[in-house]
Amino acid sequence: MSSSWQPDVLGGSYQHQVLELGPDPDGEGDVAAVLVRRLLGAGGNPRGAVLYLHGFADYFFQTELADFFAAQGLAFYALDLRKSGRARRPGQTAHYVADLSHHDVELERSLDLVATEHPGVPLVVVAHSTGGLIAPLWLDRRRRAGRTRPVAGLVLNSPWFDLQGAPRMRGPITQALRVLAKVAPLRVLDLPRSTVYGDSLHVSREGEWNYDLALRPLDGFPVTVGWLNAVRRGHAQLHRGLDVGVPSLVLRSDKTHYAREHSERSDRADTVLDVKQIARWTGCLGGETTVVPVTDARHDVFLSLPDPRRDAYRHLDEWLRQHLAT
Predict the structure, then answer these.
(1) Which of 18, 71, 156, 157 has its CA 20 to 30 A from that of 269?
(2) Distance CA 185, CA 169 (A)
(3) What is the C-alpha to C-alpha distance for residues 309 and 208, in angstroms, rounded to an integer?
(4) Which alpha helices (H) appear in the chain, and where do they start and end?
(5) Which domains are assigned to the chain?
(6) In this model, does residue 326 exceed pLDDT 70?
């Protein structure tokens, strides 16, 4: 067991390792990422592994998801990206990168570490929301560079495939971001911030889930010009068509519900993304893709109410049985 692994804030069977990445290409000092693992229980070697990737204003805390994969015989790892969650350092802008490809460094480091600990086993990348955009772009770049192993599958949980809002506004907004990002990349956009999604989740608001509000605020983090410009460039690459090189499963809610205040409807819909956009652009992943709308699911389908959450896990179990049968 590597001495680089340290006890994690999640306690119990969770440990983490800090991945030092060196100087930030965006000029905010030295950056690091943090890889978290769930220790394997007694008995046998894993038949595969999982690398989980969070979304914007998020970090890894979903131990139920890790327990599910462990029960499937898969070693579980989760990555807190640079400037996110456990990895963010004082003075750094939360989640900020000027190019989503900057994350390739920590993703490759994590992949190498998992492959070293579990040589020869297939790995499934699981990614949520913005992570669900970062991961396909990374896998497409790996495939074009002639590298696919050990990745054997991709699971996307409500991936962010397009900018929300009226179609007529997306073009002008994107053009404005490109110009402004050159002169004021860290400028905070004056966008409405809502606690509706956070209110539906966190135990302090009668939700089911307990997590660190400093790492995942109820109303998220401010959105910067440079970061959103990077996301829009990523959207454009996706819309032109990718080939992630592996089978994909896309899980999403069956409906979107935007609201200023939390209600019962907020608990049974995606309150963050437009699920029609996810449906529209999923075909751009390339290769074999399975799409499952989960009735009454939240934005994070694995943080949904018990019944839709159970459905999401059932679909994931069926997909894993089919694609990791050997």
Answers:
(1) 71
(2) 21
(3) 12
(4) 63-71, 104-117, 131-144, 167-183, 196-201, 225-240, 275-281, 306-323
(5) 6-323 (3.40.50.1820)
(6) no
At 170, the pLDDT band (50, 70, 90 cuts) reads confident
- 64: tokens are 């139920």
74-80 and 48-53 beta bridge pairing: parallel
Burial 150-162 (b: 16+ CB within 10 A, else e): bbbbbbbbbbbbb
Question: pTM value?
Answer: 0.96
Answer whether the bond into residue 150 is a cis peptide, omega within 30°.
yes
Least confidently predicted of 20-24, 164-168, 198-202, 218-222: 164-168
CA 318 to chain centre: 21
Q: Specify the pLDDT at position 3.
A: 55
222, 264 contact by CB (below 8 A): no
Which residues, 6+ apart, have CB-to-CB distance to 31 below 8 Å?
21, 22, 23, 24, 82, 83, 87, 89, 92
Rounded-to-integer distance, Cα 224 and Cα 191, Å: 10
47 in Cβ contact with 73 (< 8 Å): yes
Q: Which token pair is 29? A: 């000092």
**Beta strand pairing call for 30-38 and 74-80:** antiparallel
**What are the strands of the beta sheet with 289-294, ordered from one edge?**
6-7, 14-23, 30-38, 74-80, 48-53, 123-128, 151-157, 248-253, 289-294
Backbone angles phi, psi at 7, to 5 degrees: -60, 140
Residues in the chain: 326
pLDDT in tens, 87-123: 999 999 999 999 999 999 999 999 999 999 999 999 9
Distance from C-alpha of 35 to C-alpha of 24, rounded to nearest angstrom: 18
